[in-house]
Every structure is written in structure tokens, then in C-alpha cells.
Amino acid sequence: MNVYDSERMADVLAPLGYGLSDSPDDADMVILNTCHIREKAAEKVYSDLGRLKPHQQKKAEDGSRMIIAVAGCVAQAEGDEIMARAPQVDMVFGPQTYHRLPEMVSKAKRAVGEKILDTDFPAEDKFDHLPEERVRKGEVTSFLTIQEGCDKFCTFCVVPYTRGSEFSRPATTVLQEARRLVADGVREITLLGQNVNAYHGEGAEGREWGLARLCRELAEIDGLERIRYTTSHPRDVDDALIAAHGDLPKLMPYLHLPVQSGSDRILEAMNRKHTADDYRRIVDRLRTARPDLALTSDFIVGYPGESDQDFADTLKLVTDIGYAGAFFFKYSERPGTPAASLREQVDDAVKSERLSALQQLLESQQEAFNASVVGKTMPILLEKPGKHENQLVGRSPYLQPVHLDIPENRHASMIGTVIDCKISSLSGHSLFAVPIDDAESGTDSATRHNTARPNPSEPSSGQERISA
Ligand code: 5AD
Ligand code: SF4
Fold first, then answer.
1. The whole model's pTM is what?
2. Which ligand lies nearest the alpha carbon of 149?
3. CA-CA distance, 358 to 363, in Å (whole number)?
């Protein structure tokens, strides 16, 4: 979401004459858009500010000025502290206020030394006042925020405090924005929200729409080839959403569904509102509706009080489910969250051991998943030229980068199309493929297809079965 927010900040600042710069060297303004989710992410802000100092000094020596702003959730949570700790910072603003950037910038420009702090809520104002999203040149994929904030209050998490309570944008606005993105060449939209499947935006007839209904309407947009959404909570996977996964070919069979832990005791302590078996059942139902569905997840190791047995339960869940990828973190104490005041904090050495065991298991699953698609035919959305001459890069339904040898003179007509390709090999995390027509006939008559789908839960020759 920070990537999306940063792009929107650039949209807000464009009318003022600001454009994106590749380096801070000669920048007139630097905005650090920050994340507060774990301590490491928050600490990065101060080290980045330190690195900016010489650039800011050089700019001053040259007789001009570099405005420095800290945005995002660290700004929201620690605004006053940033002002006190980093006097070089001119503006501090939270994730719900960046539509007011023009006012803030003009104030900062007028008054050298005056510090600007804006960490107000709520989210409604922001979306009402943001300019239309611009499609960056040639982009075929785009994020689209439909929901922000969270009411779940997992005991380890700062999101309900930094992003605020759950808010859904009206479905009509979302559809309008999606149509405009597609008219500008976008072919894949990833719907964003901290708790995206809690979406309940107002629909055309004044009734609330859930995420499933929204996806069904989006799927009607001609030219939109792929729909994704992230991040979901298992509790909010309802019957309608499971049915949508079965019914909508445009809804990609790749779902990020964080579970955090496989131990019921820890899940309860985390206030996750589901058990490990609830999660297994949801995954079973999703896979029944969409057999080629692949899953990714987030995991936390070393939550206060986590025992060896609790951790073993997590490894068991991972083995049962079989993931195509995952993010895994050591529990990080976040000030102000209920878990931070628990006494049974887990030793860092134990956390490290558990993290590495979990990482090993998840990485081996990811490798097996990637290897399982070799030899299969998959629809690839072609996104951009590759690093090498006569190469195009696209994405599989599972977001794997796929490289194709395509003569340069055909790139312009092929970027933004979905073609069926036979996956020929795997190197690291990258796949290499041949358009299916080329693979079959030896000609270069690649045409546009959008039907065939692999079934990653089928074991490929010599590969372990990777899904439950
Ligand atoms: N410590 C470690 N990981 C955390 N996450 C959220 N809060 C914490 C924390 N305090 C992880 C969760 C979440 C992901 C975005 O970040 O796994 O799903
Ligand atoms: Fe944080 Fe996600 Fe839990 Fe909400 S559901 S509190 S965003 S971990």
C-alpha cells in the first residue's frame, strides 16, 4: 500500500511542478514514506534521514533547498518524536492526510524553520480530495486501494492504530477508477486494503457490496484481464468470495491469506479469531472451488509465550497446506499494542532458530511450486521489455516473472496482451517460456489466448506434491 500511496503523492504533487527523480542528489523534496509494522522498518527511517543529510547540505551550499518530509505510519505514530530527533525534517504527515500536500508544501516553502505536522484522520477526506490516478507510461498493472484500516486488533499489530478503523471506498468510485485505468492501458488490477476482504463499500443501488460482488462487477470490464486482491483475513473469507474464485476466470488463482501461526493457543493469544483447523477448512473450500489455487501467507515466530510445541504446530500447518511463497517475521514488540506488555517474551536466539527452520521449509515449498509449472502451459501477461535484446517479461497467474524471446519489433503490439506459453525452464525465481504457437509449430505466430490454466496441485514428474 505504501507503493500505491507514494504514487498517489506524486499525482498530488505533479500540478505543483514536482516530478519523480531517480536519486536524492539534486532533489528539491524528498519524501520518506514509512512503515511502522515492525521495529526494523521504523528504524530505517532514521538511518535514511542520516544518509540524506549530506545531500541536503550540498543543496543548501548551492543556494537552494531540499525539503524533507516523513510520511506514512511512522509519521502517524511517532510524529512528535521525529520532529524532536531529526531537526532536518520539514514536514511530517500521516497516511490519511497526503491529499493536503499542496498546502503543506507551500507553507514549508514560505517559512524556513516552520515545521509542519499533520497526522489527522479519517480516510474519507483523503479519497474525496485526491486527483484522478494517472497511469504511468506503458504500465499494464496497477494497484487500486479499495479499503483502508482494520478493526481486527490482532494483539501484535499497529495497523488499527496507525491506519485507523476500517473504511471502504464506495464501489461506484472504485469501478469508475478501474474503468479509467483500463482505458489507459491497464490490464491487471490489484485491489488493496489492510483487510481487503472486509470490504463493504456502498454499491450503485445504495446497498453494501462485499469484495466478491465488487470482483464480479470488475470482471465485466472489457479489457481488464486479471484481478487480484491483497491482504485478506481468514475470518472474512465468506461463501460469496469462495464462489467468486470458482466462477471468475479473471480472478487470479493466487491468494495471500496470512495465518501467522499454526497453534490454536497462540492464535487465540494473538486475537486472530480463527483456529488452525478453521484455516485448513477455508483453504480446502477455496481449493475445491478453484483447484489450481496457490496460496501464500505471513507467519510470525516467537510471539510471547510461543513454546516448542506451538512452533511445531506451525510447521505442521505449513506442511499440510503447501505454500507457493510466504513472508515470515520474528515477533517484534510494537509500543502500545497489547502483546508488547506481555511478560513471556521469547529469547531472540530462539526466535532466530525458529525463523530459519520455517524459512527452510517455506523456501523448499516455493522451489517445488516453481519447478512444478515447468513443462506446463500458462497464460502470461506481457508487461515490459526484458534486460536482454529481443526479450519480453511477463507474469504468470502466480506472479512469477516469465521471460520470452520475442523480436523487438513485435514488443509494442504484444505488451499488455495475455498469451499462452509453454514454460520451458526455471532459473532462480525466473521462468523461461515459449509462446504456445511457436512451441507447437516452430513458427513465430504467437496469438492472444486467455483460457488454459495449469493445475499446480498436480505433481509434476520428479517433484514433490506441494499442496494439500
Ligand atoms: N511483529 C512481527 N511481525 C508483524 N507483523 C505485523 N505486526 C508484527 C509484529 N509486531 C507481520 C504480520 C502481518 C505482516 C504484514 O506483518 O505477519 O501479516
Ligand atoms: Fe494487523 Fe492484519 Fe490483524 Fe488487522 S488483521 S490487526 S492489519 S495483522
1. 0.90
2. 2
3. 8
